Amino acid sequence: MKTQIDYLNEKKKTKEVKPLQHAENKIKDLECKIKDCRALLKEKQAELELKLILKRFGAEDEKEESKKLLTATTIEIEKLEENIESLIADFKSDLKDTKDFAAIKKSVTDLEKELKKDKNNEAATLLKLAKLLEAQKQFKEIKKAYNSRLKDQEILNAKLKSLDKLLADIGGIITESESQKLILKKHFDIINNQLQRYLNAEKRALIAAYENLYDKYFISAHAIEAKRNETMKELNDILTQLNYL
Question: Under a CB-based contact definition with an 8 Å cutoff, are residues 80 and 142 in contact?
Fold first, then answer.
């Protein structure tokens, strides 16, 4: 479709291209909706899985696991921050803002512009610029891992804060009495479904038998005899006309 649209645009066939562009936009909108639905489905499945774990085992084990992951993530973030600090050590004093990685990257870019404006080409300036460019190159390799760990840290913190509330929302850990009721309900549903299936099969067989009898006997013997007499009269009339009678 895109190839066809490009071709028609090139040929300036406006009337012919408009329906295709409309269809293309509609497809893109639907694709976006599908993507959103899949993301929401994935989120809901993860939420359901977590609720099932909490309902069965409570929040303590999940908290411990989340804390371990959070500790490991924090350590990784600290290592990455140490790498960043070592990369900017030679020119950190020249940076305007170093409060976080985003601020450092912006400050490094601003400093690069300033150093490139310096026309003196002093050895110290050129050396600093070389180190700065090398740092920017390393930033590109660090960026994905660093942002990913920050996101993981945010998710884990949010999860730890929400576990108790989520457990309360689903009514706490399942009790022995609730488990017994649930098991009995499951067994009842299985047995009931099988019984209903057999009962419905018998109903269908009985209905089919009555339908067969109806098809055979819904016309009375008197009506059949009257129809026969009418047919015989027509036949006799035809035979009389043919001088057989």
Answer: yes
